[in-house]
Hints:
Blueprint: E1 4-8, H1 15-26, E2 31-35, H2 44-50, E3 58-61, E4 64-67, H3 69-79, H4 90-105, H5 108-113, H6 129-149, H7 161-175, H8 182-192, H9 195-206
Parallel strand pairs: 1-2
Antiparallel strand pairs: 1-3, 3-4
Helix pairs in contact: 1-3, 1-7, 4-7, 7-8
The structure holds glutathione (GSH).
Amino acid sequence: MAKAILSIASKNYGSWSLRGWLLCKMAGLDFEEQQVSADDPSTRAELLLLSPSFLVPCLIHDGLKIWDTLAIAEYLHEINPGVRLFTSDRAQRAHCRSICGEMHSGFSNLRSALPMNIKAHFAGFKSWAGARADIDRIVTIWHECLGAYGGPYLFGKKACAADAMYAPVCSRFMTYDVSLDEPASGYCRTMMSHPYMNEWIAAAKLEPDELEELDVEF
Ligand SMILES: N[C@@H](CCC(=O)N[C@@H](CS)C(=O)NCC(=O)O)C(=O)O
């Protein structure tokens, strides 16, 4: 079988890329990264070869293309349930899928007002009310998970699909100096120091600064 390929965009700005990449790493998949510039019209032809949606991430595995992070998470869980991207407990799995879905389809104010930018730090950044409501909801989600399953990750001792989905939020909270209570800031620190996050962040720091305006959702 040919080695799996994951198409990704910038490591500094690409929050969906980070989610897909973390899912592949957590699933123990042997894969190669293919980095494409998702916002450059000249690379659209190249991108279509890699992803029918023109979006990243897209996983190519065993002759199949799987695009969209939630589909990638479910696919990786299906081919290797033993790594527990979704927990083995049905009730917890339902909870996990719900908060993954909420991240995937929601929080548009947060995503547009606080785009991921790993290298940057905006001390004292003022989040507007719409983004604040998203932040409050995310903190509630984290409190419920950490309280119910004991941390340090959302569903207990091992990072899972939900942590991959919320990892870019941890990075955004650091970048935009979002003030958080101890459980939430502790969770951010835990995620930001996860070995896979360290690997991604180190690579992001080596990328040249490309975008001046970050009012696009990555
Ligand atoms: N729902 C998609 C979102 C993917 C997405 O928006 N990717 C962005 C970059 S991280 C992209 O490819 N943008 C390029 C474009 O919109 O043309 C997923 O979950 O994978």
